[in-house]
Specification:
The complex is a heterodimer of chains A (215) and B (114).
Chain A: E1 3-9, H1 12-28, E2 31-37, H2 43-54, E3 60-66, H3 71-77, E4 83-87, H4 96-105, E5 113-117, E6 134-140, H5 147-150, E7 160-164, H6 176-186, E8 191-194, H7 203-213
Parallel strand pairs in A: 2-5, 2-6, 3-4, 3-5, 6-7, 7-8
Helix pairs in contact in A: 1-4, 2-7
Chain B: H1 3-20, E1 26-34, H2 41-51, E2 61-67, E3 70-73, E4 79-81, E5 98-102, E6 106-113
Parallel strand pairs in B: 1-2
Antiparallel strand pairs in B: 1-6, 3-4, 3-5
The chains are: A alpha/beta (215), B alpha+beta (114).
Bound molecules: zinc ion (ZN).
């Protein structure tokens, strides 16, 4: 029985497509941001806080990946930016193939920043590159400080970690040093911000950093 | 759930290589899965039976080589695997100066055909 060597990364088809999308964004001068988080991490509040702080510095577009609803997209559209909704129809993640058509719906040449809100789920989105320049993971204090140790895959392969809901630190046993140590071992290149999207703590630092990444 | 999409990719790659080699049947897939890849091999197997139906790979066995998450200690140079420890400290010298050196794999190494 002959054995045929393959040695192919199983995600290659998606990675090729993602590289094409990144070229489109580069050509239009748009920085793409892929925001991932578990449900309830405060993703939408975080996006609203980010948009409010960057509104006078950057022209932004928003892509909402959602299994069924358009609730988040409606809230963001109220802020006055172009919004595209991708309903994944049950799928637990966005992939490059889904994001491609969404790019056609955005006025890319008029934008500096594209915010993609991925489906609320931490396991699956991490496997699928979208072609975005920055992959952002939002963790939150109520989720617990042992998450990097229990679920190491989700902390690999992201560029930015936001620790949200730090206003709850006085009420929840959460050792920030312990959390960050695990994160740094898994992903030494990671840039980390500690914020409260609800109350605004740390949000200016994050927004200023993001503004500095724009082309 | 994302394993469905992954398994479809796996089938596509398999059929591409099998067809190019003029295979009548695919007998086995040799898959490498790292502990840090967030892929569950049981789920891949579950979806495989479903997506590979009515193809020349329908009866193929999935063979998974699991690669543990491996760390190297910068202090004492020891290498150690992730084994459910509640922190990533070096088990030999308790240093926090450790780095991940393996466990991200998710690839198809080879296929056995006839
Ligand atoms: Zn050591």
């Amino acid at each position: 029985m002959p054995r045929i060597p393959v040695v192919e990364n199983i995600m290659q088809a998606n990675q090729v497509l993602a590289a094409e999308l990144r070229q489109r964004l580069d050509a239009a001068g748009v920085v793409g941001l892929n925001l991932m988080a578990s449900p309830g991490a405060g993703k939408t509040s975080f996006i609203i806080g980010t948009v409010n702080r960057l509104q006078h510095k950057a022209r932004m577009g928003y892509v909402d990946g959602d299994i069924e609803t358009t609730l988040d997209a409606e809230r963001i559209a109220e802020l006055g930016l172009p919004v595209v909704q991708i309903n994944t129809g049950g799928s637990c993640h966005l992939d490059a193939n889904m994001l491609g058509p969404a790019l056609n719906e955005l006025p890319l040449d008029e934008l500096d920043l594209m915010l993609v809100e991925n489906v609320g789920n931490l396991i699956c989105p991490a496997n699928f590159e979208l072609g975005t320049h920055l992959n952002v993971l939002i963790a939150s204090v109520p989720e617990g400080d042992d998450k990097p140790y229990k679920y190491p895959p989700m902390y690999r392969g992201v560029d930015v970690l936001i620790l949200n809901k730090i206003d709850l630190l006085p009420y929840i046993p959460f050792k920030v040093d312990y959390f960050l140590r695990g994160v740094e071992i898994l992903n030494p290149q990671l840039t980390t911000f500690q914020v409260s999207a609800l109350h605004g703590d740390g949000m200016d630092e994050w927004a200023n950093w993001l503004a500095a990444q724009l082309l | 759930m994302h394993e469905l999409a992954l398994t479809e990719n796996l089938l596509e790659i398999t059929l591409k290589h099998a067809t190019a080699a003029g295979a009548k049947k695919v007998k086995q897939l040799n898959i490498v899965i790292g502990q840090l890849s967030s892929v569950v091999d049981e789920s891949v197997q579950f979806y495989w039976d479903f997506v590979a139906k009515d193809t020349i790979a329908e009866e193929a066995e999935l063979h998974f080589e699991r690669i543990p998450a491996t760390f190297r200690c910068h202090n004492c140079r020891a290498e150690f695997s992730l084994n459910g420890q509640p922190d990533f400290l070096c088990p030999h010298c308790q240093s926090v100066q450790v780095e991940v050196i393996g466990g991200n794999e998710f690839r198809l190494d080879s296929i056995d055909i006839e």
